[in-house]
Hints:
- This protein has helices at 2-10, 28-40, 79-87, 115-130, 143-154, 178-187, 215-232, 255-268, 298-310, and strands at 53-55, 61-68, 91-94, 133-141, 160-164, 192-194, 212-214, 241-247, 272-278.
- The protein is α/β, with parallel strands linked by helices.
- It has a single domain (28-310), classed as 3-Layer(aba) Sandwich (Rossmann fold).
- The chain has a seven-stranded mixed β-sheet, with helices on both faces. The chain has a two-stranded antiparallel ribbon with strand order 6-7.
- Helix 1 (2-10) packs across helix 6, helix 2 (28-40) runs antiparallel to helix 4 and helix 4 (115-130) packs across helix 5 (143-154).
- It is globular.
- It starts with a helix and ends with a helix.
Amino acid sequence: MLLFAGFLFIKPIRTRHLVSKINPSRSYQESLRRINNLRILDGGDVASDGRLIFLAHGEKTRKTIVFFHGNTNSPRQFEALGRIFYKKGYNVLIPRIPHHGLKDRMTKDLVRLTALELTKLCDESVDIAQGLGKHITVVGFSMGANMAGWVAQNRSDVDKAVIIAPFWGWKGLPTGFFKPLINLSCILPNMFVWWDREGKTALTGPTSSYYRFSTRGVAQIMRLGWSVMKEARSVAPKARAIVVITSALDDTVNEKNLDRVVDEWQRHGGVKITRFQFDRSLDVFHDLIDPEQPYQKTAVVYPKLIELIES
């Protein structure tokens, strides 16, 4: 057991393949073609409210914004906020992350999720955004925040990356245990864990969200987070500005790991970094984006998010 525990701490986490491969769109029409290619991936097994969302003004605009949704949810999670930015003149892209948005809310497809898939979608989304707007903002929540963090670290053609409640390890887990947790989750057989262990399929909240999450899928999300933590130690982030947003009542986010990345980014200098946390008196919990969450406080959250995104 001691040898196995030591192995988990020592075994390197493979991240060298998670490199950015930039291929920006050269025109608005090219971006439309590439968006259509993403839409083709939304096959018959994808729910009507689980599909890619593109809100367009019919031409390249001054600003465009890309949203990455959270684990087990779908593009619909960001639709309400996306429409606000559309009315502000932005072209808005909310891609469907692989293995999400399916009609079957008990799907086992999440076990197939990989960190490489997430980085490929990050690159493709930012590449597409090049043809949609002059200035690009990328916003991600939870799993999507890990993606936005990867974009912040790797893409110099992004004006701002907004990282909301990133999943860089479970809350309360010591930083030194993040690596062995990833290794352990990749080695052990996959398990599907209920979001609501008592209610199970009676889960209240977003109707496009799955009832369970995959431990193997979560390991891949953490692998992506680990790649950012590792890279941040030696290389400055490439995005021109970064905003990091959390809530004091979040029972998921590991603040120590997040602060470690922010400290590394600030140490490099040259990038404007804004850190904001919703006070616990506001009763804002982990999923502060989805209007369908029963505990949602969008009347409080959205105005502040808009302010931070546009500042």
